[in-house]
Specification:
Blueprint lengths: L1 H14 L3 H26 L3 H26 L6 H5 L5 H27 L3 E3 L6 H34 L2 H15 L5 H6 L3 H18 L5 H19 L3 E3 L5 H4 L9 H15 L3 H7 L1
Antiparallel strand pairs: 1-2
């Protein structure tokens, strides 16, 4: 009987701890659950690409299971995913499509402007374009779903419990950008111009969630649309860079959002999202 009473007391105590403690406790538990299985995958499979795909897929599945358990046991929520913003409705699907359209359209508008400036040149379409469109849609939606659940779902909720909305949003945006830079120091220095664009993207997606009353549908759509457009253009080889503008303007490693032009594009999109409704402006100011 004492052991049965101990667990609720422990969970209640954890729920009252500061946000950094709760976040670290969650990540530690997730790591402990994932490492044994990841080690088996590493041991049994020799292909590095398959190891990465399987290990990361398993990590995300375990994250979903733990996030549901965490919401129920630590916070006593009956519908954790709905609380984090993943409760789908007709309005949610509309927002998802709107987000995809805005994200995809914004990226192609950026390339169109750069072509007018003479910085990029469009290439002839290939018969494989349809395949790239489908692959890009799946890649974009999968990436967006995973990252939005982690950052604008679970992590933003933890920060919102302790901090004012403005501070919570910027904390999540900076962590979002920082965790994309877990790479060797040389690569961090070389690709550092990507950091500001990732911070802006992170806060843009936070504002998008707040604009639609906490649903993740619009952020998933925006994020997915940007990744989708980049996949089509990059993998489909739709453009070539003319060299008339430096990489810090057009984007490091041909990433359109990792240069001055991309930062300007994301900033305009972020300001537009922020000003979409009086409610979002009141929440964020």
């Amino acid at each position: 009987m004492p052991s049965r009473r101990f667990a609720p007391v422990l969970f209640n105590h954890l729920a009252q701890r500061p946000a950094p403690v709760r976040i670290l406790a969650f990540l530690l538990l997730l790591t402990l659950l994932w490492l044994p299985f990841a080690a088996v995958i590493q041991w049994q499979i020799k292909d590095p690409n398959r190891v990465t795909i399987l290990a990361m897929s398993l990590l995300f599945v375990e994250f979903l299971v733990l996030m549901r358990w965490w919401g129920r046991r630590v916070y006593g929520r009956s519908h954790p995913f709905r609380h984090y913003g993943l409760g789908w409705s007709r309005q949610g699907w509309v927002e998802l499509v709107q987000g995809l359209s805005i994200g995809l359209g914004s990226l192609f508008a950026l390339f169109l402007l750069e072509s007018i400036m003479g910085w990029v040149a469009w290439q002839p379409l290939t018969l494989q374009l349809g395949r790239f469109v489908v692959e890009g849609a799946l890649t974009g939606l999968g990436t967006a779903l995973a990252e939005e659940l982690v950052f604008r779902g679970w992590l933003l909720d933890e920060c919102d419990r302790d901090y004012a909305p403005v501070r919570a949003g910027w904390v999540v945006a900076i962590l979002f950008a920082t965790l994309h830079f877990l790479k060797p120091l040389g690569e961090v220095i070389r690709t550092f111009p990507q950091f500001p664009s990732l911070v802006i993207l992170g806060i843009l997606l936070v504002w998008a969630k707040r604009t639609v009353q906490g649903r993740l549908s619009l952020p998933i759509g925006l994020h997915g649309g940007l990744v989708w457009g980049y996949y089509i253009v990059n993998v489909g080889s739709l453009i070539t860079y003319t060299g008339q503008a430096p990489d810090w303007v057009t984007g490091i490693d041909k990433n359109p959002l990792a240069g001055l032009a991309g930062i300007a594009c994301l900033s305009l999109l972020a300001l537009w999202i922020r000003g979409r409704s009086p409610q979002s402006a009141q929440t964020l100011n």
